[in-house]
């Protein structure tokens, strides 16, 4: 159950951070205005809060593992919302990152 909760929190964090950055991008680069930028800033703040909800207590571990989720999530977001088409190296790289997430977060540890 803890692993499922952790994965769900990583997905939510990715949605907040990547979505927030995308909203800011849209507001600035696509000239959609301050409302988009403000929503993006709020989503980025929510990301910071969501990351604290992870069951593991180690900040460095959480953020390091989240980096892999961010890589894969960014490619997925670009594919879904911006028409980006990842090539095989993007996909392989994202899978390697997710494997790293699994090792960092969920490998058995000797305490």
UniProtKB/TrEMBL annotation:
<keyword id="KW-0472">Membrane</keyword>
<feature type="transmembrane region" description="Helical">
    <location>
        <begin position="7"/>
        <end position="27"/>
    </location>
</feature>
<feature type="transmembrane region" description="Helical">
    <location>
        <begin position="62"/>
        <end position="79"/>
    </location>
</feature>
<dbReference type="GO" id="GO:0005886">
    <property type="term" value="C:plasma membrane"/>
</dbReference>
<feature type="transmembrane region" description="Helical">
    <location>
        <begin position="91"/>
        <end position="108"/>
    </location>
</feature>
<feature type="transmembrane region" description="Helical">
    <location>
        <begin position="33"/>
        <end position="50"/>
    </location>
</feature>
<keyword id="KW-1003">Cell membrane</keyword>
<keyword id="KW-0812">Transmembrane</keyword>
<comment type="similarity">
    <text>Belongs to the UPF0060 family.</text>
</comment>
<dbReference type="InterPro" id="IPR003844">
    <property type="entry name" value="UPF0060"/>
</dbReference>
<dbReference type="InterPro" id="IPR037185">
    <property type="entry name" value="EmrE-like"/>
</dbReference>
<keyword id="KW-1133">Transmembrane helix</keyword>
<dbReference type="Pfam" id="PF02694">
    <property type="entry name" value="UPF0060"/>
</dbReference>
<protein>
    <submittedName>
        <fullName>Small multidrug resistance family-3 protein</fullName>
    </submittedName>
</protein>
């Amino acid at each position: 159950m803890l692993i499922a909760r952790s994965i769900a929190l990583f997905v939510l964090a990715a949605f907040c951070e990547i979505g927030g950055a995308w909203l800011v991008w849209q507001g600035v680069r696509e000239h959609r205005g301050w409302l988009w930028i403000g929503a993006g800033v709020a989503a980025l703040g929510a990301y910071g809060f969501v990351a604290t909800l992870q069951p593991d207590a180690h900040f460095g571990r959480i953020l390091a593992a989240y980096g892999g989720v961010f890589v894969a999530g960014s490619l997925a977001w670009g594919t879904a919302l911006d028409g980006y088409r990842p090539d095989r190296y993007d996909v392989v790289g994202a899978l390697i990152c997710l494997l790293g997430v699994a090792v960092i977060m969920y490998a058995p540890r000797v305490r």
